[in-house]
User: Which sequence fits this backbone?
């Protein structure tokens, strides 16, 4: 008698697994393209950033810092700190990539929050699901960013439409899943306090960078 | 806008390196636990700091305006488990509405 076997998934299965989640990269990609163009970041820069950075929160964050008048350094640091979690995420899937270093470098770019979550849904990380779904998310993300930039030019004053508040709502919604951890809640509260305390004294973007020190609460046992 | 392209280049290279770090460099080893717990807190900390900035940030001053009502409405939407896109639309709609009246 043999145990029932789950067939090894293929890239195709990963692509299919991504489809129910497709609305999210499409809508976010569109809104990123719209905002990037409306705030003067530039259509080409937005599309290239979607194709290289391929991480929504960081792209929106750098856009919002620049739009608020922050420096390049502040915008870069905000995005890099947000994406630092990908070091930890990529470590969790480090052993599933086949082939040489160059191939692993290329395929590792399919890592994004959603593809990573899908790849681990059967209790262990599956390479075909990660790469297959990542490919779908990547295509949708870059394509809808490009589509959004065509709409962006029509908006004259994005803030009249309340897009600044929409940014805040986006970041808040993205933070909520993390806040189930008590320590994450404490760190987030500390970060909010540092940010608000510094806004009257520091140039745009700097309070966010200083507030990131709140993550050092993680050193507490 | 050249500053935009600078951001695109630096963040792009850094993110590509972050995503490749595990598969290319680290292999099967794990991050030290304490480093891992600091990295785990980076995302929520940055996101909440962005919320605070985006809601109250002015030109080097704390500003309370239509955004606060918009973000407040989004908090309600999120508490009611609305989709992120719905929460964003609610925030934008309320803020734009208040600005129109005020």
Assistant:
């Amino acid at each position: 008698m043999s145990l029932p076997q789950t067939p090894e998934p293929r890239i195709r299965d990963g692509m299919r697994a991504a489809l129910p989640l497709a609305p999210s990269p499409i809508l976010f990609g569109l809104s990123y393209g719209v905002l990037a163009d409306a705030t003067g970041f530039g259509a080409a820069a937005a599309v290239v950033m979607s194709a290289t950075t391929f991480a929504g929160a960081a792209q929106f964050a750098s856009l919002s810092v620049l739009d608020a008048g922050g420096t390049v350094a502040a915008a870069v640091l905000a995005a890099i700190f947000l994406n630092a979690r990908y070091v930890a995420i990529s470590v969790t899937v480090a052993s599933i990539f086949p082939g040489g270093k160059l191939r692993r470098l290329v395929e590792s770019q399919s890592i994004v929050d959603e593809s990573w979550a899908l790849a681990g849904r059967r209790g262990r990380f599956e390479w075909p699901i990660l790469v297959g779904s990542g490919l779908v998310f990547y295509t949708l993300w870059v394509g809808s960013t490009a589509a959004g930039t065509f709409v962006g030019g029509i908006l004259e004053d994005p803030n009249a439409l309340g897009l600044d508040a929409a940014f805040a709502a986006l970041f808040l919604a993205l933070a909520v899943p993390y806040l189930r951890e008590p320590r994450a809640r404490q760190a987030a509260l500390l970060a909010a306090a540092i940010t608000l305390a510094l806004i009257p004294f520091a140039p745009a973007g700097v309070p966010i960078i200083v507030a990131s020190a709140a993550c050092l609460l993680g050193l507490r046992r | 806008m050249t500053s935009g392209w600078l951001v695109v280049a630096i963040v792009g290279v850094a993110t590509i390196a972050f995503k490749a770090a595990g598969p290319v460099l680290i292999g099967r080893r794990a991050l030290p636990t304490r480093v891992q717990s600091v990295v785990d807190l980076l995302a929520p900390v940055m996101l909440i700091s962005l919320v605070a900035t985006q809601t109250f940030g002015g030109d080097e001053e704390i500003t309370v305006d239509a955004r606060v009502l918009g973000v407040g409405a989004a908090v309600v939407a999120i508490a009611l488990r609305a989709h992120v896109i719905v929460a964003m639309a609610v925030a934008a709609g309320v803020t734009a509405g208040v600005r129109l009246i005020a």
Remarks:
- Chain B touches chain A through 77 residues (CB under 8 Å).
- Chain B has a mean pLDDT of 90.
- The helical segments of chain B are 2-26, 33-56, 66-79, 84-101.
- Residues 39 and 57 of chain B are 26 Å apart (CA to CA).
